[in-house]
Amino acid sequence: MARKKIDKAIRQKVIEAHASGLPMRKIAKECGVSLSSVSRIVKEEGLPKAQQEALAEKDRAERKKRIVELEKRIAELEKKIFEIEARKK
pTM for the complete prediction? Predict the structure, then answer.
């Protein structure tokens, strides 16, 4: 089965949305194309090296922030566990 041709305007919209950091699933939904089409378009068009590095740095910063938040939550839970164990004794 032949796939539907995606016009240049939609392809450009996909590339711009991806360059701005939107998730591929959201881009697919907003542009009315499949996730695999978005992935293929992004792969075919590629991003300039500077944008790739900027997105990678943004991802690293977000990951570090999530790790810090999770470590705080773990410490809180460990403290609660110790308090509960102390009360049992």
Answer: 0.51
User: How far is C-alpha 49 from the geometric centre of its chain's CA atoms?
Assistant: 18
Cα–Cα distance measured from residue 12 to residue 78, given in angstroms and rounded to the nearest whole number = 49
Fold exhibited by the domain 1-47: Arc Repressor Mutant, subunit A (1.10.10)
Tokens of 46: 């590629």
Helical axes 35-45 vs 24-31, angle rounded to 10°: 110
Q: How far apart are the first and last CA of the chain?
A: 69
Q: Stretch 2-19: mean pLDDT, rounded?
A: 85
Can you read off the two tokens belonging to residue 28? 């697919």
- For the chain, give every domain's residue range: 1-47, 58-89
Q: Are 74 and 82 in contact (CB under 8 A)?
A: no
